[in-house]
Write a structure and sequence with these properties.
Strand content: 5-15%
Distance between the termini: 42 Å
Largest sheet: 4 strands, mixed
Number of helices: 19
Radius of gyration: 24 Å
Helix content: 40-55%
Order of helices and strands: HHHHHHEEHEEEHHHHHHHEHHHHH
Strand order of the largest sheet: 1-2-5-6
Number of strands: 6
Length: 415
């Protein structure tokens, strides 16, 4: 993360069980010491209240129960300084039981959703996706849902396991660890797909994000010069040409603008970004010189229609990671960082590296794409486009409990 001060607005955190769980905190100081046998209990089996006793936090901070509640209760804290590691640790420990219950409930809910027979019929893909990567040395396997903080995790694993430090980070540096169809071993009695080269007891995890936030984040990042070059042939150039050609009715003029558009990409590839490109003021392909959300959605519609769409940047997360068949242990939400991130690295045994994930967090984790902007952009789309992306991400909305439409506050008359 950059050195700029960053904070999270935590008032939006969904927390149905906060009060009844935290009310148990006053009993924590009375918990008896665990017996020698109970100290061998695995993380999954440890009762929630025994992992981070409130009495320990009181002793370490010198704060009483009331002061701890005022300082660390997630329903009271509105802004979190992401550079204050001590605060983050205490914030997590105080709210651990809430986060533990939330994620346990989420995983149980996902398992129930996976039992729905309509889920398989509604899959948008045309073959199984294999986007799980084993990190056996750490005892984990990871699926990157693009635009959900995946860059941070990708770079972390590359630094861990790629011998020569790369000049550029990209996912294929981990390709030898990808669990492909050729590495499928069998399906166990619980319906979980097992793979060769993966430890059977690996913890499988992923990080997800609101589908519409992923779309808006992707179209924003695609406007950066380096991404324009990288994604030119993948989708950007075609999407912009198809979306804007209809505005030019003169064939000669259209060809001139297209040539100029091609020259713009050549200019970017030559490393001229930052200087001025000599463009026609009325060239629609360069006004703006980057794709819009509407153009990207139209491109997705077209690719789905011709059954040729494998781009993970807008593929539904449940489909890209084959959530049900791969039986994940933990799925956290990007929107609920830092608490859920701290919980994840704790459960994965990566606690000593936790600061890395904040220091190297990308713009997604810094929440530069706020939901207000997301909803504004989504609502700027045509109704048919909005209906399509709602259908496109239908299972993600259901599986991960995300809203499809902006919640409008209803005020009583005179209020």
């Amino acid at each position: 993360m950059s050195e700029e001060n960053q904070s999270y607005d935590l008032m939006s955190i969904e927390n149905k069980a906060v009060q009844d769980i935290l009310s148990d905190n006053d009993q924590a100081s009375n918990i008896e010491e665990m017996t020698e046998d109970s100290q061998n209990i695995s993380v999954e089996e440890v009762p929630i209240k025994e992992r981070y006793p409130l009495s320990e936090l009181m002793n370490e901070t010198g704060l009483g129960e009331t002061e701890l509640d005022q300082t660390y209760n997630l329903t009271r804290v509105q802004n979190v300084d992401l550079h204050n590691l001590n605060f983050l640790d205490n914030f997590y420990r105080y709210n651990y039981k809430v986060i533990e219950k939330r994620i346990r409930d989420r995983m149980e809910y996902i398992r129930n959703i996976c039992q729905d027979p309509s889920l398989e019929r509604n899959r948008l893909g045309f073959q199984r996706r294999y986007n799980l990567y084993q990190m056996n040395e750490l005892g984990v396997s990871w699926c990157p849902v693009f635009k959900s903080g995946s860059t941070t995790w990708r770079n972390y694993f590359i630094d861990k396991f790629v011998v020569e430090p790369p000049q550029e980070y990209y996912l294929d540096l981990l390709k030898s660890r990808q669990l492909t169809s050729a590495k499928r071993l069998r399906t166990n009695q619980d319906g979980k797909v097992l793979y060769k080269e993966e430890n059977e007891d690996n913890i499988r995890f992923s990080v997800i994000r609101h589908p519409f936030s992923r779309l808006v984040s992707h179209v924003k990042s695609s406007g950066r010069e380096i991404e324009m070059v990288h994604q030119q042939a993948i989708w950007i150039q075609n999407a912009m040409l198809e979306g804007r050609s209809r505005h030019v009715h003169n064939a000669t003029l259209l060809q001139k603008y297209k040539t100029e558009f091609n020259n713009y990409f050549s200019w970017l590839k030559a490393g001229n970004a930052g200087s001025d490109f000599n463009r026609s003021s009325d060239n629609p392909f360069l006004s703006p010189p980057s794709p819009t959300l509407s153009e990207m959605v139209d491109h997705i519609i077209k690719k789905r229609r011709i059954r040729n769409d494998w781009d993970g940047h807008w593929m539904p997360g449940h489909e890209f990671c084959d959530i049900c068949r791969n039986a994940y242990t933990y799925i956290i939400k990007l929107e609920e960082e830092p608490l859920e991130l701290w919980y994840l690295v704790d459960m994965l045994g990566l606690w000593e590296d936790r600061e890395v994930f904040l220091n190297r967090a990308n713009s997604s984790t810094r929440k530069q794409t706020e939901m207000l902007e997301v909803w504004n952009q989504i609502e700027s789309l045509a109704e048919s486009q909005r209906e399509f992306i709602e259908r496109h991400f239908d299972v993600d909305f259901r599986m991960f409990d995300y809203k499809r439409r902006r919640e409008v506050e209803v005020r009583e008359e005179g209020g």
